[in-house]
Structures are given as C-alpha cells and as structure tokens.
Recover the amino acids of this structure.
C-alpha cells in the first residue's frame, strides 16, 4: 500500500513499505498546516528547484532525520555545503534508491536558490517521476506546458500526475488540461494554486474538466491522504 499525503502548495509525501519520500517541503504555506517539521520521519527529500516555496524546511528536516536530499547537481552542491547528505542528479537521469526509483524530468521555470544573495547561485528546475511498488507518480514541480510531457504518455507510464494549475508562474488550469492529454495518467492531483493572490484558481473545476477527459482526480485538503 502506498500513501500520498498533501501538505499544502506543492508539498507531498509518498510512503511505502520501503520508506517515506518528501517532495518540496514548503510546510508553512497555509494557516491550516500545523505539521511540525521535526515530527516527520523521512528517508529522502526531493527538491524540484531552489525557490523558497519549494525548498521550504528541507534543511531543517534533512538535518533532523539524516534524509538524503535528491535534486539537480547545482542545488545538491549548494545544499551539501549546508551540511546535509545529498544525491546529485540531472535532467534525464534515473537512479534506483532503496526507497524507490527516481527519474529527473524537464521543467520550464527559473532556478534561483533560496537564501542566496541576488540569486548568485542558480539551478536547473525539474520534475520527478517517482516509482515505487509498481506505481509511478509524476510531480511536475513549477513548470509551464512543455512538449516533453509527451514522453511520459508514450514511454514512461504515469499512474498519478501532480500538476501546477495556478498560472502566472506556472501552467494554468487550461494548460494543465492540455498536459493531461500528453501525459495520459490514470489520476490527477492539482497543486500550486491559491497560496498567493497571483495564483488564484478553481481547482474543483479543473478536476471536473479532467474527468470529462476520462481522467479521475481529486482536490486535496491540507493533511489529506490518499492510498494507491
């Protein structure tokens, strides 16, 4: 059994008998979110890019749990200097970890690292295809609509797609629906919406429109869990 937990904004965990992976742990994105980073028990943290609303409390959690931080090369090097264990990868790379298989997928976005003066340090944004116990989860990170998503539909089957829908900084709901036609997942979960005024949208309408295309989905509340 695999349990997916939503922590708000773009933060999720995926737990299986092999361990728990945390993705983009911005745990202070909502007044509803009362998760204490020090209460989390994770084996790995996946970071899509260096912006503060995605790195979140990754350093604090990694220091406390000794979890490995998996991300692109430049961001991994930056975080390693902060004293955490990292595993550097890059776009197109795949690695089999004890907790599951990680594939780094392209994303169209910026890459300034949170906390670096004047964005002195940059990194390549990415998404992840995380596969464990026979199920594949695509966390798109912050991205615009990209033709590479067709690769997922054609060559790397996705069970669950987790897509940004807020617009302005990422795809909006309309573009996310186009992405679904390329990715062809069995299930979709929207993310990166309504945290800030610039990314306000109606996630329920998005999910309903996805169902019209034959793809089931759900808008998760902070702290809600799904099992696959």
């Amino acid at each position: 059994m695999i349990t997916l937990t939503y922590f708000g904004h773009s933060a999720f965990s995926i737990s299986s008998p092999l361990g728990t992976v945390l993705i983009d742990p911005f745990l202070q994105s909502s007044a509803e979110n009362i998760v204490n980073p020090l209460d989390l028990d994770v084996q790995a943290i996946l970071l899509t890019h260096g912006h503060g609303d995605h790195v979140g409390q990754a350093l604090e959690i990694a220091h406390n749990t000794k979890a490995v931080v998996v991300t692109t090369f430049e961001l991994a090097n930056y975080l390693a200097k902060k004293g955490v264990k990292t595993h550097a990868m890059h776009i197109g790379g795949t690695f089999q970890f004890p907790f599951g298989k990680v594939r780094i997928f392209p994303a169209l976005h910026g890459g300034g690292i949170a906390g670096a003066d004047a964005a002195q340090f940059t990194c390549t944004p990415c998404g992840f295809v995380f596969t464990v116990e026979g199920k594949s989860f695509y966390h798109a990170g912050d991205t615009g609509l990209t033709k590479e998503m067709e690769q997922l539909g054609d060559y790397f089957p996705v069970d669950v797609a987790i897509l940004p829908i807020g617009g302005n900084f990422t795809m909006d709901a309309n573009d996310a629906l186009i992405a679904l036609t390329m990715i062809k997942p069995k299930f979709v979960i929207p993310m990166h919406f309504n945290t800030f005024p610039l990314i306000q949208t109606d996630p329920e309408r998005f999910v309903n429109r996805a169902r019209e295309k034959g793809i089931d989905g759900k808008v998760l509340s902070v702290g809600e869990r799904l099992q696959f």
